[in-house]
Write a structure and sequence with these properties.
single chain, mainly alpha, two-stranded antiparallel sheet, elongated
Length: 601
Amino acid sequence: MDVMGDKATLCETGRFVQPSSEEPARGDEMGDAAEEMRLRLAADAGDVEAMSVLGAMLLRRGDLGGAESPLRAATAAGDRAAANNLGVLLHQRGYADEAAGWWRIAAVAGSAAAAHALGRHHRERGDEPAAEYWLRQSAEQGHVLGAYALADLLEHRGDAAAGHWMRAAAERGHREAAYRLARALDRKAADEDEGGADNAVEETEQWYRQAAARGHRRAALHLGAILEKRGDLKEAGRWYLTSAKDGEPRAACALGFLLRDAGDTESAAVWWLRAAQDGDGNAANALGALHAERGETQTAERWYRAAMDAGDDNGAYNLALLCVEQGRVAQAEQWYRRAAYAGHREAANALAILLLQAGDETGAEPWFSKAAEAGSVDAAFNLGILYAGRGADAVALGWYERAASAGHAEAALQVGIARLRDGDEQEAERHLRCAAGGGSVEAAYRLATVLDARRPPVSEHELGEIVHEKTECEEWYERAASQGHRRAQVRVGMLAAARGDVVEAARWYREAAEAGSRNGAFNLGLLLAREGSEPEAAVWWSRAAEAGHGRAALRLALVYARRGELAEGQRWADLAVSLGPAEVSERAGRLRDALREELSA
């Protein structure tokens, strides 16, 4: 058979034809009519190519009856493009098996489009070996749809060769192939925990960008997410907008968050509403939170319920939080349970806390465990507290370590304290640094004490003589002191005094004393007494002594003894004896006896 070349190919659906580059472009109706007349005359004169092109034109128009005759005539004359299009026509009429016969004739004659159509036919029938054979024939001839269909078949089987053909289709402009290739690269990076290597991210972005530029709305969504993560918010917003306008609710939701972060809450609400109405639970939650912030609790509850209806467990969790704020504890427990049973780890943790507050420790523990096993860092820390309260320190430490490894500052503090008890100062310091860096005030103080103990002794200097720069331990003390840690404030004051910085020392002592620190009050009194302000010093010593500071009571006893107020001196001496420590009690006892003798003389 004298076979002619293809004059028509299948478009992406595999069900309709498009004109070859040799066909005239579609013009106005008169132009189409004139072209059709020319083709009919040529076909009537026996021009096989005209028959084929005329049949393709009528098929494309939907005139199946008019297209069949010229296509059959061209096919009989050996035109493989006509055989392919005849198969398309028959397939559209429901004669799939007859269509496959003509596709086979065209495919054997070398038509890549027919091989693709035949491969698709066999796959729909469940004959995967035959499907793979014909799709491979099409793909190897460079047919983009054949390459994509082959990649899809191989990927379904888990065949590693799928990637090669998916890439081939993407490189030839197939937008779905470009999108799926980008998704595969994304998953590979996540599985290998590559941390977003530059080359991998760049290639992934390239394929998302190619698919998005061709109108793939999900590719536009993912491209926007990559750009947002990088900080290119303006371009990210453009792609989110493109995807959202094409009907992608997740893009509308993401655009809403981008606008909210930019301060445009009203526009954000418009896009969240659009996404929520299309069934996006995250957007419904965002609307609920927005109305909750405005105090519109009934509207917030309605949107949280809409989020639940959309399958978003955060809706139940947020609804529980709303109930807690309103004091509706029983309802809060109900919604926490619903979210927790659905696998919401923070809801499980919150439910456990609610049960624990109600005194149900037995009921709380399994929910803490479930949340912790699901990855809740707070739940792991709470389990540590629970076991520590029972005296199971080893088990508690295991949970603290688990939470600390995930960055929980207070858990790292507890591990650091445990390591200090064990004498492992190096490990203790490491955990205390993590906790202090994470914002734990107590960790900053304890880290400072560890570093302080290593400092070489510093010789005393005259007050007012600043002799050295601040050490690292003092910087950590100051960090804790600035956040209200009273013992740190006292220690910063002592170090400032050792440097000779009286003003700084007095400031920190006073801050600690006013916050209730008896040591701060006592040291402030010492500083004031040295500066000649003994009456004011006595005021602070009184405050310290009344809070249980034995040395402050002894100082007051001496002050009143020197003034001749023996009874008052004896009263403070009695208090110093009772408060201690032993050295103070001994000295205060001697002073008390002397004052008693003086009073009885």
